[in-house]
Amino acid sequence: MNKSPSSIFGIVQDDIDAVEKELYSVIQSPVDLVNDIGVHLIQAGGKRLRPALYLLCARGGNPSLSELLPMAVAIELIHMATLVHDDVIDSAATRRGRPTANSRWGNHSSVLTGDYLWAKAFSTIASSADKSMLKILTDVISSMCEGEIVQLREAFNPEQDEADYRQRVAQKTADFIAASCELGALSGGLDEADVVQAREYGFALGMAFQITDDILDITASAEQLGKPVGNDLRQGIVTLPTIYALKTSFHRDELRNIIEKQNMSDEDVRRGLEIVHETDAVEYSYQQVSRYLQHARNSLPLTFRAPVREALLAVADFVGLRKY
Amino acid sequence: MNKSPSSIFGIVQDDIDAVEKELYSVIQSPVDLVNDIGVHLIQAGGKRLRPALYLLCARGGNPSLSELLPMAVAIELIHMATLVHDDVIDSAATRRGRPTANSRWGNHSSVLTGDYLWAKAFSTIASSADKSMLKILTDVISSMCEGEIVQLREAFNPEQDEADYRQRVAQKTADFIAASCELGALSGGLDEADVVQAREYGFALGMAFQITDDILDITASAEQLGKPVGNDLRQGIVTLPTIYALKTSFHRDELRNIIEKQNMSDEDVRRGLEIVHETDAVEYSYQQVSRYLQHARNSLPLTFRAPVREALLAVADFVGLRKY
């Protein structure tokens, strides 16, 4: 059994419950269908990692929850918007073991609901957020979109190296988690050096988080993942373990041929995963995760109070240990 | 030949050119594909009606262009984002006679580029916009999404009356045009009564604009439209002329049956349009356009300077006369 993430957010667990409540209130719409999809997305939502990190880093200082709530909610709404659009893009049928919005309500409503969530996110912070914080948020969103577009463009292309991969993971995932921490530190009124450190912690954590995701996609069971195994490979998305195998496997030419197929059969995917598993790609990738997590831990601002530090260290441990 | 819209924006024509230039600069990305799609969308862009209305209403007062530019650009970026997502939703192959982004680069890149444009829109105004203006903008976007979702939900449903239609058109189109005028009047520092009037002008103009669009979809040639005729009917979107025909035509049961078909043949669409044309649905709909335009003209703030009033009246004339 995995340690429940709900127990690791420590001193901000109550705040997360408030975020949860506020999410339901913000997405309310006179249009039933919009409500239904919104509620589904909230319920399908995961750990609330990003708002939790935002709140924890803010608790490095002493702001009130009411000051923090809008940005925490906006961060989760933005994350939800990216997820619902990602699922449309990936034609995903399930996420975390539940049907995706697109599989239940169709791509069209899902695209529009994502847009609705963007608007609600900015609406939530319009009246409270500091201008420079708004800019941090919008810059990271455009960068996320760029990262996703690059991922699409580079799908089925085996000619990608680790640097390409890291750049993509930074844009897709780590920059947003870094921004969540940075925004938290700014909201907490921390000094500039601590803001930079909090951001660094978030960035390294985000890199570790996404690499773990990419490892689990080839090692976990479909049940654990709540979606099919080898999903990335099937979509031609070349992740760290695959890049490693493409460099080191005796069967690298075969793997390369599989990746270049736009319509992989189940057997292709199975064989591709087998080739990756024959190498020590998973071990190598976990080493990278550990390296990033160590960097995250070392980056934590020393001025953070003990319960904040403890929670942020627990989050780092959780990212390294999670099995789904 | 239609009067070119570029000549009707009068005193803000130079400002629109500045908006145009700024659009290219804002969408720039280190990712070539993002640039390519962005440039395509700007070039495929229409009349820049919304930023022009924003600028004109702002010119009711005396702000500088540099104060106005970010919001004008953001308004057009938001419009572009809705268009690119709409084209994905409608699976449209062409818009204004040019291939759509989705037909050229696929749905996935188009969804992401729309998201990129949302982010760029808010990024553009993050550092300058007044909080209440930001709120007006985000509220209108969520309302637009709701309107589009309702349209999807009510597709192929012939049980819609004029009130449903007006509500949908308000949310889909008129509210955003109203907000463009309202934001302009606010940026121009006009007094509250004039802000309300400017909004009213924009709302009525927007209603007239969308009803005209819906009429042209059944009266214009595919060449004029730059997209197939009867597109709305084929997608089950019930517009004012159709609602009128459903109420008055001798063949209303036949029309009802056609609308309920989820997969209309070309012959179904042709026959549906024929039934609508046999009634005076088009004449009736144009009467509604005229009524809204008259209301728009009457709503113009009296304090607006002569060249501003003239341009806003010319825009109303243009909306009433446009043939595509």
Automatic annotation (TrEMBL), chains A, B:
Its keywords, alphabetically, are:
Magnesium, Metal-binding, Transferase
Among the GO molecular function terms of this UniProt record, one is: heptaprenyl diphosphate synthase activity
> Is Magnesium given among the entry's keywords?
yes
Enzyme category, top tier: transferase
Task: Give the EC number(s) listed in the UniProt record.
Answer: 2.5.1.30
Q: Which cofactor does it need?
A: Mg(2+)
- Give the domain of life: Bacteria
Matching entries from CDD domains are given as: Trans_IPPS_HT
The UniProt similarity line reads: Belongs to the FPP/GGPP synthase family.
Protein name from the UniProt record: Heptaprenyl diphosphate synthase component 2
Organism encoding this protein: Sporomusa acidovorans (strain ATCC 49682 / DSM 3132 / Mol)
